[in-house]
Amino acid sequence: MSVIRPDLPLLDLHRHLDGSVRLETILEVGLQHNLPLPARDLEGLRPYVQVTTPQPDILAFFAKFEWQVGILVNYDVCRRVAYENVQDAQREGIDYIELRFSPWFMAEPNELNPAGVVEAVADGVATGQRDFGVRANLIGIISRTYGPEVGQQELEALLTQRDHLVALDLAGDEKNFPGEWFVDHFRQGREAGWQITVHAGEAGGSQSIWQAIRELGATRIGHAVRAVDDPALLDHLVENRIGVETNLTSNVQTSTVPGYASHPLKTMLEHDILATINTDDPGISAIDLPFEYAVAVEKAGLSQKQAAQAQQNALDIAFLSAAEKEALWAKKQLV
Q1: Which end of the chain is more exposed for a tag (fewer CB within 10 A), N or C?
Q2: Which of 202, 215, 245, 298 does the annotation list as catalytic?
Q3: In this structure, what CATH number is given to the domain that contains residue 206?
């Protein structure tokens, strides 16, 4: 049974646009462009694209991205994927969504220009907002897995559409590509007027979260699973109102946590941390946000009150102005 509060806006603050490609779109584009798909029907393709059993680690989960981005053969497909992300959000009953993407990661398989990818994504999301009435904002990702030099090129591509993005994120292989390598990149991002959210404490420990806050300027943390290992960090998150974008099913599938019952979201909410419920890569996880509220929340041991608090927290920490948040809330009161 869903625990979504109908009188509160429903938000997803941590969804990777490039991990949310429809299976049908992968098949259709793959066949249209004669790509070497591993199967030529939906059910045959599914195990290559979606997680059906927990993966041994996050890098095994990353391997599922091969065809999520492999079909991005041109800017029109990038635009289509961005547009469909907004449509899918509308179908899920989402009132506001923040879609994040790595232009280098999207461009690399088919040798596209990352700046062209950013332009296409911005256009697709803008058109989707107009057509489907869902408010959406974009977060640009620097993919740490490519290293700091490529990271600078990726940042420059994102800056070509500076006014169409609200925040900068760091994602990728947290264990082998530390945040310390990207301090200057995030200084540039802050100077561009962007908010900062960073993937940390997922594959790395609590020190990775401290670094993201102190050196990169993060006001939100993606995942932050390892925060519960450090009581001083938990207190710091509360005192400084640093938001946490949790992803229940994703963390189980990547074996970041052994199972839903051991996920630290409940502990975070008990400590009054501004923790939220999000989907991460629903195209890979084969879930949507209502699933997280209906199934994952119960398995994680959250009460209805705690689930509602997470839903309220999302509005509190969204990268929106106070007036925009008030408008979202007011709109729900009219329903």
Answers
A1: C
A2: 202
A3: 3.20.20.140
**What is the distance between the alpha carbons of residues 245 and 235, in angstroms, rounded to a whole number?**
17
Residue 6 lies in a domain: no
What single-letter DSSP state applies at residue 271? T
**Domains of the chain: total:** 1
pLDDT score at 61: 79
* Statement: the pTM of the whole predicted model exceeds 0.90: yes
Q: Give per-residue pLDDT as tens, 29-47.
A: 999 999 999 999 999 999 9
Report pLDDT for 108: 97
- Domain membership flag for residue 52: yes
Residue 202 among the catalytic residues: yes
pLDDT tens digits, 218-235: 999 999 999 999 999 999
Query: Which residue reads 């941390």 in tokens?
Result: 273
Q: Are 327 and 297 in contact (CB under 8 A)?
A: no
Domain range for 178 is 11-333
Q: At what angle do helices 114-132 and 75-91 cross, to 10 degrees?
A: 30
